[in-house]
Write a structure and sequence with these properties.
Number of helices: 16
Helix content: 40-55%
Number of domains: 3
Strand order of the largest sheet: 1-7-5-6-4-3-2
Shape: elongated
Largest sheet: 7 strands, mixed
Order of helices and strands: EHEEEHEEHHEHHHHHHHHHHHEEH
Structural class: alpha+beta
Distance between the termini: 58 Å
Number of strands: 9
Amino acid sequence: MIIKLHEIKIKDIVKGYVDNQEEGVLGYNGKLNIRPKYQREFVYQDKQRDAVIETIQKDFPLNVMYWVKNKNNYEILDGQQRTISFCQYVNGEFSINARAWHNLTKGEQDKILNYPCMIYFCEEGDEKEKLDWFEIINIAGEKLTPQELKNAVYTGTWLTDAKRHFSKTGCPAYNLAKDYVNGKAIRQEILETALDWISKGQIRQYMSDNQHEPDATELWQYFLAVITWVKAIFPNYRKEMKGIAWGELYNKYNKKKLNATQLEAKIKTLMMDDDVTKKSGIYYYLLTNDEKYLSIRAFTDSQKRTAYEKQKGLCPKCKQKFEIEEMEGDHIKPWIEGGHTLPNNLQMLCKDCNRRKGKK
């Protein structure tokens, strides 16, 4: 991989500066993609933005920035917020201490325009080398999210179309699934979720395989299918449904015959069950039948000590005596059969007997 350090003056970077909002931001005479289409929006607060200009005015060094070369053009990997800050100031879009760009003397303007930015260019390298490097240098400022790092490596027609669906403010994916998935579209978190689901955790491989595809139709149709399936089998929305790994459940159970009415009846019962301490786990449980997702309320240490003393340390299954540390609290009537986590439903079993009972 070839990495070169360049010194580029602000006057060259701001040349041809244009902000097309969510259609992208360009500079460096049209050769620098400051913010690619549907990339994250400007996130600096006024204080951070002003600090960039004050740093330049005082001739203090800005943190080094990083560009990646794509054929004859460049794309900012790290330094987008700093670059937009000084471009906006030179463009007259805000003032500092009541002084806008047009209020500065020519000498003050020249000092800013001739300020040298230290920029590393990543000119060549395979995908893994680039991603490793990007992760290492992503240590300051408004850090890139893991998905933004991957986006910097797998740029192309496919990614541009994927961002159109998943990454801009009010994008189709956000409008469709904002109640079901976590994360912000402009920070690429909804895109990351969709990619994680469709690739079964192999996001890099999926992006590499599809990098030069003309569009991201497959990804969008998959995501649409997942959310449509969720809404069909669980039509009554509850706040606990947000953030569930719906794609993983869809991949395993979308062919299974499910009755929405019957599922809803079970959900109501489980939601009112005090022994179920993790209500979001109800949806996993109904599809997997695995009680671990419910985090069934455990007996307290006090309850277990009382039961142990009543049993005089004897395991009712094997009739052997044990220290309390060698025993575990067990529901006499299993939770699945309607048994609750109450003292009168507690027995202390030795660990071996409890394991054997659990396997039945």
